[in-house]
Write a structure and sequence with these properties.
Elements: E1 15-19, E2 39-40, E3 43-44, H1 45-55, E4 60-65, H2 69-76, E5 79-80, E6 83-89, H3 96-108, E7 111-116, E8 119-120, H4 125-133, E9 139-145, E10 155-158, E11 161-165, E12 176-185, H5 186-189, H6 199-208, E13 212-217, E14 222-223, H7 227-242, H8 245-248
Parallel strand pairs: 1-4, 1-7, 4-6, 9-13
Antiparallel strand pairs: 2-3, 5-6, 7-12, 8-14, 9-12, 10-11
Length: about 250
């Protein structure tokens, strides 16, 4: 699909979903089923993500797929919940998260959001996009005040900017964590050398250059990266469907 053929609904930029990982922490769960298709609360996890994006006005998604990617395309198809969906396949050796984005660039245009394929985020996607587009910075990262609660904190936020980010080597002064949603312009991709394959490496460089806006999330994230996390996310999503007060809040 030509990314210029249809404008994104409600002004939300295209959303790049990184869905090509091997899901190594899920072992037997992903031997024959790719992680985005794992059943969570009665549906493929990716279906929950797409429904949420649709509710926030997304009109186009590019799925970066790798491991068992053909099964994802067969199950999800070219549209879901009113969202037009394109697919970008990793090379046989897998590209890494940043490599996958570079490969998908022709489908994404000059400005796009980036979402990890194993996260369910209770955030106003439109507000993130509008705050970022309203400024002059090439990138945005959503962050949550974490204090080590959900995983190792990995970011320093100061005056609305992520001034330091290091996923591999967090330091005690890092109280915030990468929430799982970001945004990039095409020019931002050129900041990292071609040998850099991980999106976290690019974010770190952008932070060091003073070019990474920080957008504060207020609600915890849910994810399916491990069996325990998947069970917790399943319970949360089932609570949403039942209208449980703790899930709505």
């Amino acid at each position: 699909m030509n990314p210029a053929a249809e404008p994104a609904r409600a002004g939300l930029p295209p959303v790049c979903i990184l869905a090509g990982g091997l899901g190594s922490r899920l072992s037997e769960h992903v031997r024959e089923v790719p992680k985005p298709l794992l059943e969570v609360a009665g549906a493929p996890f990716l279906d929950h993500q797409l429904r949420l994006l649709s509710e926030h006005g997304a009109g186009r998604v590019v799925l970066c797929v790798g491991y068992l990617g053909e099964l994802i395309e067969r199950e999800i198809g070219a549209s879901r919940h009113g969202i037009a969906i394109d697919y970008s396949y990793d090379s046989p050796g897998l590209d890494g998260t940043l490599g996958a984005i570079r490969r998908a660039r022709p489908l994404l245009g000059e400005r796009f959001l980036v979402l990890y394929g194993d996260t369910y985020l209770r955030i106003d996607y439109r507000a993130v996009a509008e705050a970022w587009i309203g400024g002059a910075l090439p990138a945005v990262m959503t962050v949550l005040r974490n204090e080590g609660r959900w995983d190792a904190s990995n970011a320093v936020l100061r005056d609305g900017m992520v001034v330091r980010y290091d996923k591999a080597n967090p330091t005690p002064d890092m109280h915030w964590i990468d929430y799982g949603l970001g945004g990039l312009t095409g020019d931002a991709l050129a900041v990292a050398p071609e040998r850099e394959r991980d999106l976290s490496g690019l974010y770190g460089l952008l932070a060091a250059r003073g070019e990474l806006m920080g957008f504060q999330a207020s609600e915890r994230f849910y994810e399916i990266g491990s069996p325990d996390a998947m069970a917790e996310t399943d319970a949360f999503l089932r609570g949403l469907e039942l209208g449980a007060p703790e899930a709505r809040g």
